[in-house]
Design a protein that fits this description.
The chain has 611 residues and is of the alpha+beta class. Among the domains are: 109 residues, Ubiquitin-like (UB roll) (Roll), CATH 3.10.20; 233 residues, no CATH class. The chain is 31% helix and 31% strand.
């Protein structure tokens, strides 16, 4: 049997040293732990003993707060810095100094914030840090910097009021029109204060600890100039340019000249925004146009057709040359004048007359065409009307005057003859007299200026009809008048805007000359032209619905026995058709036209005097 026995080996020197160091380390750790526990316990004990109080050595600015409660500390700090609310802010401005009291700005020390910071000393971090903080504070002390605050709303209101009082609006230069021209007034800069910048500057000054003991804090406000939109130099230059525009304007065309006075030019000009957006004096295009429109009455002239010289034997023996007409183009001329005014405004003076925009109009019958036709001109038709001279035709004046107004009229190829346009105004001033007329279906004597003129229009209508010309406007009388061809009379009248005209067109390639012969009791029209070989056939009138007229007699004591007059003339009622056919020289029909006339039956009235 084998027996195993544990044998204890003898300890060596190294192992013995290791054991001793281990025991020392353990003892140190245990001692350190006990020391920390003691320190922590001391901190806890100290904090418990000084709960709610400020640690030793803590100052708020120059105020010792050691051992004070929060309320005590707040009261002490507030009392110590009460002077912060006493004083004023002095704002130095260009126009003087504005002062605002600290009280109005709510300036005061923020004691609560300072005390809260004091209470926090030594009470933050881990226990060891707090112990170190308290020891350091107790030995060396800790000072909380003064905290100055103010009512920011009150400050903002005060600054805004100051800025509003100091700020000024810039004044633009202006231009006034005077009797002697345009005069410029001076501009003036405005000014403003940057509310944001001044507020920041004041806040820094009021809140600076270095300013805590100052009874007055001075702050200088910087102003910013605001330039006007229109400067004095701009207005002066504009006024000078406008005055340069006020000068006569001479217009010229061929050998003619017209002058627009400087006074008229001045009425065109007004102060405002120019075409390039700058301020100045502009010419009102509407006023320029109005002036040119008035001047156009002197500039414009109608083209004059060439005419013919007639011998005593009623033969064409020569030609009177025609003349071109001209018409002022107002719109284009306005632009030209505005360009001239712009040059004057810019200092570009010119004495050269301005050539306005003028359109040339040529006569319907040129001199060349008349000259070519003259040797071939012959009488191509004629018509005569005989009448009784009396009050109903103004003792023949109302027939003779319009006939003479038409005499010598030339109707160019393709042109339209217009009775009223050719005759012109019918007035007493032109020699017309009161005459008779058919008004509302009755004969009225002595009430109408030019009464009886229809003898002229009817005579010319029949001459044109027999020349084979294309007739236009035409109307028959209310009742049939026996001195006229039945169904081929042509009445004319004007009543306000209502007009009955007589027209015809020269549908031949040659000019037509109208000659009139008029003496009391007779009017004749003869048309001259280059014969085309046209022939005209006129049918016999077709009459239907014939109703014979008759006359009744009325007696009156207003007339002496044997005296009488017709207050109405009898006339047969009837519908009439007349057909006119025009053929060319080869016999080919050019036109066929049927004229219809409805004539009312009239019952005549013979008024006789009785004893």
């Amino acid at each position: 049997m084998t027996t195993t026995t544990e044998t204890e080996l003898p300890a060596t020197a190294d192992s013995a040293r290791s054991v001793r160091w281990s025991r020392v380390l353990i003892a140190f750790v245990i001692g350190l732990a006990l020391a920390l526990a003691l320190a922590v316990g001391s901190v806890f004990a100290y904090e418990q003993a000084h709960a709610g109080k400020i640690g030793a050595g803590v100052h708020a600015g120059s105020v010792d707060l050691s051992g004070l409660t929060r309320d005590q500390a707040v009261a002490k700090v507030s009392a110590a810095y009460a002077s912060l609310s006493v004083g004023q802010l002095s704002l130095t401005l260009p126009d003087g100094t504005t002062k605002v009291s600290y009280t109005d700005l709510g300036r005061h020390v923020d004691a609560a914030a300072m005390v809260d910071a004091a209470l926090a000393v030594g009470r933050t971090g881990n226990p060891l840090a707090r112990v170190a903080d308290e020891i350091r504070t107790a030995l060396h002390g800790t000072t909380i910097a003064p905290v100055v605050t103010f009512d920011q709303t009150a400050l903002a209101t005060s600054i805004a009021n100051v800025a509003a009082a100091v700020a000024t609006t810039p004044v633009n230069a202006a231009i006034q029109s005077t009797k002697t021209g345009f005069v410029a007034s001076a501009s003036r800069d405005g000014r403003t204060i940057s509310v944001e910048g001044l507020t920041r500057q004041v806040m820094v000054a009021l809140g600076s600890p270095s300013a805590s003991d100052q009874a007055t804090i001075d702050v200088s406000a910087d102003l910013t100039a605001i330039a006007p939109a229109i400067s004095s130099s701009q207005a002066t230059a504009a006024a000078a340019g406008a005055n340069a525009e006020i000068a006569p304007i001479t217009l010229t065309h061929d050998t003619d000249k017209w002058t627009i006075p400087a006074a008229t030019v001045a009425t065109w000009l007004s102060v405002g925004t120019m075409a390039d957006g700058t301020y100045g004096v502009t010419a009102d295009a509407a006023k320029v146009s109005a002036s040119l429109t008035a001047l156009a009455k002197s500039i414009n002239r109608k083209a004059v057709d060439a005419s013919f010289l007639i011998s005593k034997q009623n033969k064409v023996v020569g030609v009177v040359a025609g003349k071109d007409g001209r018409t002022l183009d107002v719109a284009t001329s306005v632009a030209l004048i505005q360009g001239l005014l712009s040059q004057r405004f810019a200092g570009i003076a010119s004495t050269t007359p301005l050539v306005p925009a003028i359109a040339t109009t040529t006569p319907s019958l040129s001199t060349a065409a008349a000259t070519s036709a003259a040797p071939k001109m012959r009488a191509i038709s004629t018509w005569t009307t005989h009448y009784i001279v009396g009050a109903h035709n103004g003792e023949s004046a109302n027939i003779t005057i319009p006939a003479m107004a038409i005499d010598g009229t030339v109707v160019a190829p393709g042109a339209v003859f217009n009775f009223w346009k050719t005759v012109g105004e019918v007035s007493l001033a032109k020699g017309y007299k009161l005459g008779g007329a058919i008004i509302n279906g009755h004969s009225v004597e002595g009430k109408t200026i030019g009464g009886g003129i229809c003898s002229t229009s009817t005579t010319l209508f029949n001459a044109a009809l027999r020349a084979g010309l294309e007739t236009g406007a035409r109307a028959n009388h209310y009742y049939y008048i026996t001195r006229y061809p039945k169904g081929l009379d042509a009445t004319v009248w004007e009543d306000g805007s209502a007009v009955q005209n007589m027209t015809f067109t020269n549908d031949t390639p040659y000019p037509i000359l109208i000659r009139a012969y008029a003496v009391p009791g007779l009017v004749r029209f003869t048309l001259y032209s280059v014969p085309t070989g046209r022939t005209v056939s006129i049918s016999k009138p077709i009459v239907k619905n014939f109703l014979p007229g008759y006359t009744v007699v009325e007696h009156t004591k207003a007339l002496r026995s044997g005296q009488f007059y017709y207050s109405e003339y009898q006339a047969d009622g009837q519908d009439v058709w007349v057909t006119v056919t025009v053929r060319d020289k080869s016999g080919k029909v050019i036109s066929t036209k049927t004229y219809y006339s409805h004539y009312a039956r009239m019952i005549g009235v013979l008024v006789k005097g009785v004893a």
